[in-house]
Amino acid sequence: MSDTSANTKQPAPVPIRFLGQFIRDLSFEVPHAPEIFDDMRRTAPDIPVSFDIGARHTGGATFEVSINVSLRASVSERPAFILELAYAAMVEVDPRAVSEDQLHPALLIEIPRYLFPFVRQIVSDLTVGGGFPPLMLQMVDFVDLYRRKFGDHPQKIELLASAQA
Question: Per-residue pLDDT for 162 more than 90?
């Protein structure tokens, strides 16, 4: 005998489906070239990095999630290079698999975790292309970033959400 109920089972819903990834905005400048390269031979640059994460509802079950990276490398208070990157993904969230109270952290923790390796590679490639050694961003704890901004209380995603590292 065959069990027909096993054949009619619906597959588990895919919680989040990526529809695409893209560079929303990108800027890289070396305002003091070529002199800054001589300065960097004598002094290592200071490179503070800030991250901003955001999500916006674009309609239906679709959301745009972004990581914004801003860094300004400087040598003795002089900018060596300035890099700004906004990298984003369009995702579709299945409400059967992601409850409303988990939507905000899912979008602002899990999606940035997935996007971060792409952001890291773009930053490395840009610095090399700009004539500098590759800059490898350190891993980011998106859970900590989220908690520092929002605490343990998920927000409604209709609001533009951001957090600073």
Answer: no
